[in-house]
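In this notation, each integer encodes one residue's backbone shape. One such record reads:

___
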Amino acid sequence: MSNFNRRTFFKVSAGAVIGLTAGGISLSALAAEQLKLDDPLAAAMRYTHKSEVEGQNCANCNLVQGEDGQEWRPCAIFPGKLVASEGWCAAWVKKVAA
């Protein structure tokens, strides 16, 4: 039988909590980088920081995340990057009212 007692359980649990917390902080730090126009995925998706398509921008796209009113927000298309709320890309999808 395994020697997995309560003390071992708490040690493992504490390590997991610390690991998850540190991982969350690292992911938050990665998401703080603004998407650059020369990024290969941005170029492939024809991303621009200022939309030239009337009525379409990242702020009213269903793929953008985060709170309304922020100048730069995370996007599902560009993981770990922030897009300009006034930006646009070829993956734009009209935001569905909740």
Q: What stands out?
A: Residues 33-98 form a domain with the High-Potential Iron-Sulfur Protein; Chain A fold (CATH 4.10.490.10). DSSP finds two helices and three strands in the chain. Strands lie at 33-34, 72-74, 81-84. Helices lie at 6-30, 40-44.
